[in-house]
């Protein structure tokens, strides 16, 4: 902590991070232990966060992330999209394929940014806002592989015809971006994905991840 920072705000943000990392919530005692402060401090932090709907407590007294976080989250997608666009444009122009950034939204994959190549006679139309199950399409499969820790070899996912007949896809997960699950990929009209596409998609995913850190 420096002279310019707020200890109370710092602790409140740590509470939110701790709660975001658990599915079952945390008790006051558990938060007190993890933060290294007494229970009275935790009670005050939770009461303040509850006033802003950032935290809720269930009947058993366990604290969980509140719905107020969703209002803040609505502003995340535009920021993420803006950071990703340079890498997506380069990817689309290099491969002549539609490039996209896809994030997890519940049990679905949500395309939040899409860039189409400018020089091709035809390409796959793929729109921001498009949703599909995580276990279908290269974008979702890359995310699931990252969850399972299976991204070392080859480091990207390839699919054909899972979301659109005649279209093939390649995607690589975003790695090392705290609090964000997603992938960068391309979709093209082809029976199979050319060899160089997978490594190029991995390169673009790293560029986006670096921009978001």
UniProtKB/TrEMBL annotation:
Domain spans labelled IclR-ED: 68-213
SUPFAM superfamilies assigned to the protein according to its UniProt record, in alphabetical order: GAF domain-like, Winged helix' DNA-binding domain
InterPro entries: ArsR-like_HTH, GAF-like_dom_sf, HTH_MetabolicPath_Reg, Tscrpt_reg_IclR_C, Tscrpt_reg_IclR_N, WH-like_DNA-bd_sf, WH_DNA-bd_sf
Record domain HTH iclR-type: where: 6-67
Source organism, top-level taxon: Bacteria
A Pfam family the protein falls into: HTH_IclR
Keywords attached to this entry: DNA-binding, Transcription, Transcription regulation
Alphabetical list of CDD domains matching this protein: HTH_ARSR
Protein name (Swiss-Prot/TrEMBL): Helix-turn-helix domain-containing protein
Organism field: Streptomyces hesseae
Species classification: Bacteria, Bacillati, Actinomycetota, Actinomycetes, Kitasatosporales
């Amino acid at each position: 902590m420096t002279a310019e920072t707020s200890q109370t705000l710092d602790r409140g943000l740590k509470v939110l991070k701790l709660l975001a990392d658990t599915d079952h919530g945390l008790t006051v005692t558990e938060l007190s232990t993890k933060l290294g402060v007494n229970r009275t401090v935790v009670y005050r932090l939770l009461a303040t966060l509850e006033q802003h709907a950032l935290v809720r407590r269930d009947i058993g007294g366990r604290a969980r992330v509140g719905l107020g976080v969703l209002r803040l989250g609505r502003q995340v997608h535009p920021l993420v999209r803006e950071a990703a666009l340079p890498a997506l444009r380069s990817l689309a122009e290099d491969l002549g394929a539609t490039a996209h950034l896809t994030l997890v939204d519940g049990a679905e994959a949500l395309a939040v940014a899409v860039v189409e190549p400018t020089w091709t006679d035809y390409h796959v139309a793929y729109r921001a806002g498009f949703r599909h199950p995580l276990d279908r399409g290269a974008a979702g499969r890359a995310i699931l592989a990252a969850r399972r820790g299976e991204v070392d070899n080859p480091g990207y996912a390839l699919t054909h015809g899972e979301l659109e007949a005649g279209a093939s896809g390649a995607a690589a997960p975003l790695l090392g971006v705290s609090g964000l699950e997603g992938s960068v990929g391309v979709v093209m009209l082809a029976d199979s994905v050319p060899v160089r596409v997978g490594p190029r998609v991995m390169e673009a995913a790293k560029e986006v991840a670096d921009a978001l850190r």
